[in-house]
Write a structure and sequence with these properties.
Layout (H helix, E strand, L loop, with lengths): L1 H16 L26 H13 L6 H14 L3 E5 L2 H15 L7 E5 L4 H9 L3 E5 L10 H7 L4 E4 L11 H11 L2 E5 L7 E2 L2 E2 L6 E5 L12 E5 L2 H11 L14 E2 L7 E2 L15 H36 L3 E2 L7 E2 L5 E5 L7 H10 L5 E2 L9 H4 L4 E2 L4 H9 E4 L7 H16 L2
Parallel strand pairs: 2-3, 2-4, 3-16, 4-5, 5-8
Antiparallel strand pairs: 1-9, 6-7, 6-13, 8-9, 10-11, 12-14, 14-17, 15-17
Length: about 425
Amino acid sequence: MADDISALTRLVKEFYESKKHKDSFDVDDDLFQRVSLAEPVFNAAEATHAMTTILEGWISQGPRVRTFEASFAEYISVKHGVAVNSGSSANLVALECLRLVHSLQPGDEVIVPASTFATVAMPIIQIGLTPVYVDIARETLNISPTEIESAISDRTRVIMPVHTLGYPAEMNEIMSIAQRHHLLVLEDCCESHGSAIDGRKVGSYGDLATFSFFVAHNMTTGEGGMIVTSNEDYARMCRSLREFGRCDQEDIAESRYFNDGILEDYDKRYVFTQIGYNVRMTDICAAFGIEQLRKLPALNAQRQDHARYLRQHILSNWSDLFECPGSASDYEHTYYTFPILLREQAAFSRREFTEHLEQHGVETRPLFGGCLPDQPAFRSAPGRSHGKLPTSRYIRDRALFVGVHPGLTRQHMEHVINTITNFVKGI
């Protein structure tokens, strides 16, 4: 068996090293005219680890999930990691954990940024709580601490900041607000693997934090997510919720049976203590994640290099037309993508600009949901908007982002700048 795996591993490495399939860190010269928004960057390390997992028979949750959880928690500098099948599931399980542990009641409020991805607010609604949409700061694209404090009501229980596109939210201020008002904090770090404030990684500030390993993100397991915390009770609850609501399985080898006066000597593997979900990560995904985590600093460095190039050229040439939010020197921005914001005086629309970019091979997207209360699904759903959300609605109409992932090269970045140059000349 071991010899067979070694032989297959050798073949996989040869495949990735061959001209037929170059390592994803390299890009053929003739591809530079297409600047994709996101691509997974992996090679033989991930492929052989995942293949070995399959050959050994661990295709569901198993030892590699536990290894990945421990490694990722250590990377963030927290005590516990709980792996799940997506970042959206991570948000759902983390919120449900807080609801159960703290006996949150229907209609209790969770403060979120108005401009973010849909699955920040959706699980809040799904478990019977109420999202409160708060405006963002234009220079960061993150939730405004000032707006957070003024949005707090007697029903507020949780603050849920999002580190947008890998730029850290103002966590020191947010944690101070939470402490003053006795509120819980759940960090959504789904786009910010490795982002930090003065060297302290996001995900280590709040009571709980969530990450996504979707194929487009800074590191990937294909599909996957992680909840991290230093609170043992939260970790235990999240492990239960991700797996049908089972009672804690951690000590099953030492204490196999459950007794509570009704169930007597009942096998713990079939004891359910709360209504849960089935959102486990597989060992195949975890094997991929273990290798991706080792590469994450190098992958992020490439993103940051691409972003510096775009920022320098855009702001030195067209600062009257564009803004590039997120640049504080003490914040480590890991650039899931690169944001561009059209200024008020720009004599063209976002549609005109994005159509020109895409006609020349530069893929774009708006900033996620723009302003979530304006999205069709949220207009009649439970929720409260704090104020008129002017910045979020400005972002809704005038923000976009482009790719800076490690599968791109300096040639790709030069192509982006040349494409913008030609557009501005033609105005």
